[in-house]
Amino acid sequence: MTLPDTDPPSLYAAREPVFPRRVKGAFRTLKWWIMAVTLGIYYVTPWLRWDRGPNLPDQAVLVDIANRRFFFFMVEIWPHEFYFVAGLLIMAGLGLFLFTSAAGRVWCGYACPQTVWTDLFILVERWVEGDRNARIRLHRQPWNWEKLVKNGIKWWIWLVIGLATGGAWIFYFTDAPTLLRDLVTGHAHPVAYITMLILTFTTFFFGGFAREQICIYACPWPRIQAAMLDEDSLTIGYRDWRGEPRGKQTVEGNGDCIDCMACVNVCPMGIDIRDGQQMACITCGLCIDACNDVMDKIGKPRDLIGYMALTDEVRERAGEPAKSVWAHVFRPRTVMYTVLWVGVGIGLIVALFMRSPIDVNVTPVRNPTFVTLSDGSIRNAYELRLRNKGGADSQFTISVTSDELVTLSLEGTERLTVTVPANETMTQRVYLTAAAGSDAATEDRTEVRIWVEQQGTTNRVHHDTVFNGKEDDNE
To answer: What is the pTM of this model?
Structure first.
């Protein structure tokens, strides 16, 4: 028996473009405000100035990779203080857990960069091509002069936005006015141009073409969020016990949903919230605005679609009132996240204000471990990294304390004082010497403490290390 030649079904389905319709309402207004604020912060921040003195950059927010420092207004973070950055990342993670457990994917729906720039690109698309029906018609028609012109104008504006996005990003890493002049005159480093091109392309592609595909397939958060949600988490849902069966209001027995598809047409993810909770839903609230507008027109109560928790659904089905929003927000899980978030923040603030304007790091030289001098005394060498975080050159005095007698000397000078330039780290070799036959000279390990004091101030720091002696073979 000969089987007919048939091709196996394809496992790949081409993307169906989503053309969300314009909608007005409280959640859409909130998204406009968040988009304006977040984009304003992103584009404007590199141009803010902050006077730190003659020896420091005056850019308010600057990631100075060349000098390995990070400036944030009055705060200056050095490389050895990376724990501040780690703490901020921990706070960001805890904040994401907190908001997700309380109100679902509100980060994704309102403040995620992918959402913000996609909203901006859709706004441009609507300005150029019209609202949903006009965009669908233009997408389906063959290429002609109208389609070519409108798409060309839209893509050009998208490229300008992408270029501004890439340019704003690199302005955070060097002096913005200087870099802008170098970019325009062609004197900027090739890395700057390459970075701008990469970010321009990714912004253009992600916001203009990939859109909801990034949220569904590229972003890991939709798969993680289930672990953050529980029966008291507020998410967007459809009250099917009130809306079903769908249909015209003139038919007796139908629910409040007239199956107008308004909630689907405004959704930037292209889903139908009436099908229940879905991984693609970013809880942006636009379906609530659309449905409330329809309910107002047909004289039905609002919130057929709205924020609700699983416990609310059970109570409402039984005819009981839902819990208040505060009862969902303030519960043990969210309180725990809040306490942890606040605790990390307080710890960072305390560490920030307790840190010293000077710092020292001591590295023993172990090749060799010790040297026996001509008079029998034992000498150890150490590399000191002296850090002056102030805006002026400063004199540092170096000393040593120990339970055993050891003397300290500096390489290249008979004094015990060195000058460390402003905002610089200087390496200085020092020697500790124990007299022949002393306890420190004959013991394997002796605890010592090296002190560094900034002259003219009360700033003083220390570093504990070990002096290695030559063990007495007769013991």
So the answer is: 0.82
